[in-house]
Amino acid sequence: xxxxxxRRKEGRSASGAPEAGRPAPGSSSSGDARSAAKxxxxxxxxxxxxxxxxxxxxxxxxxxxxxxxxxxxxxxxYRTLFRGHGFDLADLRxxxxxxxxxxxxxxxxARLGVAHVREHQEDREVAVWMLLDLSxxxxxxxxxxxKRMLAASLCAVMARLLTARGNRVGVxxxxxxxxxxxxxxxxxxxPHLLHMIDRIVAAKxxxADADETDLGRLLADAQRGIxxxxxxxxxxxxxxxPGWEQALGLLAxxxxxxxxxxxxxxxxxxxxxxxxxxxxxxxxxxxxVDSGDASFRARFAQLADExxxxxxxxxxxxxxxxxxxxxxxxLGDSLSRFVRLRKRRAQLASGALPAQAHGSNR
Length: 362
Prior knowledge:
Layout: E1 2-6, H1 31-41, H2 55-74, E2 83-94, H3 106-112, E3 116-121, E4 127-133, H4 147-163, E5 168-174, E6 182-187, H5 190-202, H6 215-225, E7 231-236, H7 244-254, E8 256-263, E9 275-280, E10 286-290, H8 294-318, E11 321-326, H9 331-350, H10 355-360
Parallel strand pairs: 4-5, 4-7, 7-8, 8-11
Antiparallel strand pairs: 1-9, 2-3, 5-6, 9-10
Helix pairs in contact: 2-4, 2-9, 4-5, 6-7, 7-8
């Protein structure tokens, strides 16, 4: 959200945190403080093109540290997420007035006396879309990695895993509100992966004087532009003007959507840094607050908790799973935990008992 600059007499800058009481601001700094923040947090002002990120080196590092761990977890458990016009029979159910009559199973209908239709597994080679919010607030990071680089790392890992199984991966980038959505069509192959990573880390962030982020515009564009049913990952800190909730729900009605929420620990708790300046990276608004005031920090924590609850309710109403990624947590650990939860949910939905339940019955 906000990057905090501790104003000392010697002019040194301090680490960042979000502003209290504001609905959805971003983080930024200016002048010498911006240069200091870059050196400390890896260019958190949303200009990764100057960080010297090598897409090939980033991908190779993630292949060793994250991809190998997840690939072992996913082996033998890769199943399509959709039912549709594939070749493998998935289920039989009673005919509904909205069903296509071409899928009626006449043999089953004759035996049971009630019209039944076939449901097939959708083709395994599906298109996967990464919808990235690269607004100014995503450039914030209080440690060695920003939310923006965390999003780039996740895209690299997921694209590497999915393309290895024949799936095509594409991206849609939301940057400056005045420009169109940047689209990279789904493809496979390592050159495409490297090009995708390069586009993400080099994309120009929103201008500091731009309007508040409109995540709903990215979701509405995806709903219009993604015609075939796909797997969709929405990567954002969800710091946006209201209205994106409905667009996310409409997108989830047609596609399998996973919301990836990016956050930094200092966006939840404001440290005691004395008198500090908070600058909004998206509107360039600057205010001064006294973080040494305990009541102010308590109010800040209360507002952060309230926003957390509202966000969780909005995602639940949209009917999407949520993967939470923190800048201070290992990416492999977060993804492993999420994969285990998805597997457990799939087992429960199919009527099977989780592995722990089987063991407890022996």
